[in-house]
Task: inverse folding
DNA sequence: ATTATTATGTTGTATTTGCAACTAAAATAT
DNA sequence: ATATTTTAGTTGCAAATACAACATAATAAT
């Protein structure tokens, strides 16, 4: 069976590295674009959902969101029915940055898929979604402190 | 055109997160397994090659290698013909850890590919290699300080 | 109704990551 | 032969990341 972990890691690091360099132009520091796009697309999302969506530790997400708030990109509102949760929304400033992120991501996607047929692109996307589903469970399991046996 | 950046990022973070937790058992701190496997498979590799292979900043690789050296996992030897480079080799201790890393990675790979047919697995692997090639050039380009226009 | 458990979020601390700037050897150009 | 550029590696700093431990609200169990 072929290994997919390594190419996936390589591609992910390369893309993330490129994005982080390019998003300095819109005053986003390392990693922040990840959170901001999700918040723009899911206004009212809560922290734990956000962390789970991105697959990042919740304390990392917490500090990223704190920083986005401090920089005026997002704002948090308390819920009326649930005093514990804090709903996260993009501000106007955050919404202005959003198209820039999308444009960059679309371009990187274009570069990544260069030379693949329409059919191949679709296959790749479909297969990656399956892999994402497969691995998500193990991530939650291991993060929750459980031990996989193999 | 479907987006592949997001699933790839999600999968990569999830897998890396799992690995980092599981490799504490063999006294590897975050990220170190990445370097150690490559060094074991390419004994005598130099730092810049290693960084480029993994797609990580060379200063990050430098510090990871320093730490692996301090912990007795790898050793560095100077080259006779080239005074500038330092060849990196695994130690016996490093070589002992290697099979553990491989076993964990193979298991994660298995989980990731669950439910995919042999044919699909092969396709996915082939397509990812193409994507890796596509994006590698842009990574080198942007890391070298150049600006992409899109 | 009270207790136990889970869900959501935060802070302390240690470590990793990477950009900037630098040194020096090697390779290339003049 | 000398000067220039590229290659390889390092250190200073600032920031991100995540584990541990915690607080408290919400939910479930008794």
Result:
């Amino acid at each position: 069976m072929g290994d997919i972990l390594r190419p996936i890691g390589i591609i992910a690091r390369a893309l993330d590295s490129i994005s982080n360099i390019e998003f300095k132009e819109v005053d986003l520091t390392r990693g922040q674009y990840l959170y901001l796009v999700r918040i723009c697309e899911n206004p009212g999302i809560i922290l734990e959902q956000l962390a789970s969506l991105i697959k990042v530790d919740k304390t990392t997400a917490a500090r990223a969101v704190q920083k986005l708030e401090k920089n005026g990109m997002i704002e948090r509102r308390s819920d009326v029915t649930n005093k514990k949760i804090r709903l996260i929304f993009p501000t106007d400033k955050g919404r202005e940055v959003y198209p820039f992120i999308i444009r960059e991501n679309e371009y990187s996607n274009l570069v990544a898929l260069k030379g693949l047929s329409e059919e191949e692109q679709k296959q790749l996307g479909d297969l990656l979604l399956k892999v994402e589903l497969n691995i998500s469970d193990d991530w939650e399991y291991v993060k929750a402190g459980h031990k996989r046996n193999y």
Observations:
- The CA atoms of residues 25 and 114 of chain B lie 26 Å apart.
- Helices of chain B lie at 5-22, 32-41, 47-54, 58-70, 92-112, 118-143.
